[in-house]
Amino acid sequence: MEYKVAILHDYLNQYGGAERVLEILLEIFPKADIYTLFYDERRLAGKFKANIRKTSFLDIPLVRNNHRLFIPLMSLAASCLKSLTSYDLVISSSAGYAKGFKVKGKKRLCYCHTPLRYAWEEEYMESQTVFPKLMVKTIGRLVAKKLQKWDKKTAKSFDGYIANSTYIAEKMKKYYGIEPEVIYPGADENTFFYDEKEIREEAYLMVGRLVHYKRFDLGIRACEKLGKNLKIVGTGPEEEGLKRIANPKHVEFVGRADDERLRSLYNGARALIFPQTEDFGLVAVEAQMCGLPIIALKSGGAKEIIEEEKTGVFFENQNEDSLIEAIKKFEGKKWDGAYISARAKRFSKNIFKDKMKEIINRYL
């Protein structure tokens, strides 16, 4: 039997880990309708276009290009986004807003990347918005309290709950009183794999959207103090600021990289520097599938991906000194790329798909 399926996604104006998960869900349900706040066809290079069913009143160029300015309106836009169609299954793949879409479904599953950060994490709101910190601490707190109520209410509207990591499952229990199942996002083993013929260079690597919370600045400063070379893959609002503090002698900004280029960079780097707290961290999984060890902040999803001193090393404090000590510790050890790659396969795309299908079949 072919089921009629809708997938709810917060917004589509960038390509990251959540969008990779969306792609995998579309492999399971190729004809699924996508509901999203707004869609930027140019930035997504046409990805997902064939499946877009409906967007919100925020789907205009001004919002697509400056979406952080419109955070206070997103819960309203989400509540206004409705479907006339009733689906057999509705899957919310969301970091907050999409689970508030009024899309009808006989069964509704919530795959949670994180509870809404703008509601629960003041530091995140300060770092991600363009508004002055004083405004965030005053008006922002009032907005956050309203968003918390909205976030809790919309979270209760599903039949089943899945978290992308144990770290996020604990947050869901704390904020929503919900104990979800955990299914880790998966990376494609046919795309990201260990190539022992590749020669590892001396350069370290950082990968992701260039936004504040990912702390590319720490990697830049630590590598420059140690006289180490660093390659940075990605684009984002922090790009110009990061280029101003980086010494071109040590730091190379690669820009966007397709999967083939990214696999080559993973296989050719010395280690991935991962100084941020992530809900899970697909970049870390992709890197390890390519046999690349990781130097990571001991926080968030990284603790579920990395085996201390076997597939990477941790540092405790999110500052330059702590990262520098971790790099020195890393350089004093030998690393087995084949072992690192083998361990990462527990996070494969096929395992993710199988577990999602199992839960979906249970509910349908």
UniProtKB/TrEMBL annotation:
Molecular function per GO: glycosyltransferase activity
Domain Glycosyl transferase family: 200-345
TM spans (from-to): none
InterPro entries, per the entry: Glyco_trans_1, Glyco_trans_4-like_N, Glycosyltransferase_grp1
Source organism, top-level taxon: Bacteria
Residue ranges of every copy of the Glycosyltransferase subfamily 4-like N-terminal domain listed in the record: 15-189
PANTHER family xrefs: SULFOQUINOVOSYL TRANSFERASE SQD2
Protein name: Glycosyl transferase family 1 domain-containing protein
Organism: Candidatus Jorgensenbacteria bacterium RIFCSPLOWO2_01_FULL_45_25b
